[in-house]
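Pilot study result, target chain (270 residues):
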Amino acid sequence: MKSGQSYGQLNQYLDDIQGRGKYFFTLEETKKQLQIDQTAVQKQLQPLLKKQKVALIRKGFYAIVPPEYRITGAPPVTYYIDGMMQLLKRPYYIGLLNAAAWYGAAHQQPQKYAVIVPPPVLPAIRKPYASIEFIYKKSWQEKDIVQQKTNAGYVMVSSPELTALDLCYYSRHAGGINQVATVLQELSEEIDSDKLVEVAGRYFSLMAVQRLGYLLEFLGYSEKILPLKEWLRQQKYHAALLDAGDKNHKSKITGNDWRVIVNTEIESDI
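Predicted structure:
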């Protein structure tokens, strides 16, 4: 197809791929499919960007914006995150508050979308219509990740048990330990006691396990975490700060089975 013949075909091409349930595209694949150069593609992109029919997510990667999302400027992250990570050839999973929302524990809409990735860390995406924070984690077990169906395919999401542990480790990325406690009150209904012990055994931080156990007991879920408490007794572990961000706390007194130093007052919003 000649460049002149293909001019104006981008809009039709995007309609075609959206009709197949795909809501993203790249400059490279578009050049190949339409057999035109980058300048011609970008020229055709400009009016679509102005009309908010497409949105730039990261260099060379765009989301197709259905009419119902043009007010916000882009479709939800779940419409394109799996496609973007596959193109980058990077494993990932949706985590923290965004994962908790999949299990009915969305107390507040998080301002940033948390995506867990292995190194090297990807730069955050900061757009008015797409704010994605990539959080570093060396590795994880696939068995702790759940494939969730969306309106545009599938995405990878941490299991309720892994979500709970991540919230206790990456609490500053989740609005602080009080926000974590609030979310855990709702997320706890989805946590399986035996599975929690299995996931804890694979988790890289015992301190996160201690915090989670303490918080669930504090919130009144003593029966649910009995297997976890028994498992922890068999491990070698040290005292852990409840709020990991407060490094100036002097007292080392815990006064609880989890050996958690309570250096902040928990005030759940529920």
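One observation from the pilot: The CA atoms of residues 99 and 126 lie 20 Å apart. A full batch analysis is planned for the follow-on phase.
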